[in-house]
Specification:
The protein is mainly beta and about 160 residues long. It has one domain (about 1-160). It has helices at about 105-110, 150-160; strands at about 1-10, 15, 20-25, 30, 35-40, 45, 50-55, 60, 85, 95-100, 115-120, 120-125, 135-140, 140-145. The strands form three sheets. Strands 3, 4, 5, 8, 10, 13 and 14 form a seven-stranded mixed β-sheet that branches.
């Protein structure tokens, strides 16, 4: 099964030259090595709503040198995720771990970000402000987002298609 996840902005996010966001998927509490991803922002700027801010499976350092003058505010080009091959079944607990200093409070985190999860070509857009999305606040700037309901939905559709 191919898996990837991305973090998107629901509202504008301002960053400075110390800002970062790191994402990875965990199956049953164990990090999936191929999904570890991070983005470091090495200048001051902003990312506008509906723009990607981070993704799994790759590491990026965003610098002013990499921007063209035509990009403008909110046009930091954050690359998409790399898919990871992962074996999952209905009993697996899949979570997205997010570590960031862009927001340190879980209430702000849920209002500012959304997650796009891809499971074998099926895409789930998940606003974190949804009441059915379970988020564990691990500590300042560290969150665990439960993706279990979406994995079950994807696996159920896959199994129904095979029958």
């Amino acid at each position: 099964m191919l898996l990837s996840a991305e973090a998107f902005c629901e509202n504008a996010v301002f960053f400075d030259d110390t800002s970062f966001i790191a994402l990875h998927l965990e199956r049953n509490g164990i990090p999936l090595e191929d999904t570890i991803g991070s983005d470091s922002f090495l200048f001051n700027g902003a990312i506008l709503p509906e723009r990607r801010v981070g993704a799994t499976g790759r590491t990026c350092r965003h610098q002013m040198d990499n921007l063209s003058a035509a990009l403008g505010l909110g046009s930091v080009s954050v690359p998409g995720p790399r898919d990871a091959v992962v074996g999952l079944d209905l009993s697996d607990d899949l979570r997205l771990r997010v570590k960031t200093n862009l927001t340190l409070d879980v209430g702000v985190f849920t209002k500012v970000f959304s997650v796009k999860l891809r499971v074998d070509g099926k895409t789930f857009d998940i606003p974190l402000s949804r009441p059915d999305v379970q988020i564990e606040w691990v500590g300042r700037g560290e969150y665990l987002v439960s993706l279990q309901p979406f994995v079950i939905q994807a696996l159920t559709k896959t199994m129904a298609g095979r029958a």
